[in-house]
Amino acid sequence: QVQLVESGGGLVQPGGSLRLSCAASGSIFNINGMGWYRQAPGKQRELVATISSGGSTNYTDSVKGRFTISRDSAKNTVDLQMDSLKPEDTAVYYCKADISRRIRPYTYRRDDYWGQGTQVTVSS
User: Fold this and answer.
1) CB proximity list for 107: less than 8 A, separation 6 or greater
2) For 70, which DSSP code?
3) Burial (CB count within 10 angstroms: exposed 0-12, middle 13-18, buried 19+), residue 37
4) Euclidean distance between CA atoms 104 and 81, whole angstroms
5) How far apart are CA 113 and CA 115, in angstroms?
6) What is the pLDDT of residues 17-48, one digit of tens each?
7) Are the CB atoms for 36 and 62 separated by under 8 Å?
8) CA distance 108 to 94
9) Per-position b or e across 6-22, b if 16+ CB within 10 A of its CB
């Protein structure tokens, strides 16, 4: 089985910084894209940032210039460095990974896996 675990959330003042980390473990053949999503109270879950296996990144407009996504393929981790945080960044942040597993020799299954989420609160 595959498990994703996020860490690094917490309470921070406006203008402050946090770094989120997500570690994937289990029976993993390959991790393709990884990303961070967030869901604020009363709102739908939205994409925050993604990073491909080749290292290309995408960000939602509201976090461009403030957030940085990175990954360490050798460690199966993805991080989200969040700077200049604003109250509107308050949300539960979720890690997602596109993972392929070997079911049998020459037989693979590719699925999206989600972490349990970590709370980020930006408030004075």
Assistant:
1) none
2) E
3) buried
4) 37
5) 7
6) 999 999 999 999 999 999 999 999 999 999 99
7) no
8) 25
9) bebbeebeeeeebebbb
Amino acid at the residue 50: T
Q: Which two tokens stand for residue 37?
A: 């999503």
Token representation of residue 28 = 């993993």
By 3-state DSSP, what share of the chain in percent is helix, strand and coil, each rounded to 5?
A: 5, 60, 35
DSSP summary character for residue 13? -
Q: Is 99 exposed, middle or buried (0-12, 13-18, 19+ CB in 10 A)?
A: buried
Joined together, the tokens standing for residue 108 give 């693979």
DSSP state for residue 65 in the 8-state scheme: T
Percentage of residues in the chain having pLDDT higher than 70? 100
The four Cα atoms 62, 67, 71, 75 give a dihedral, to 10 degrees, of: -120
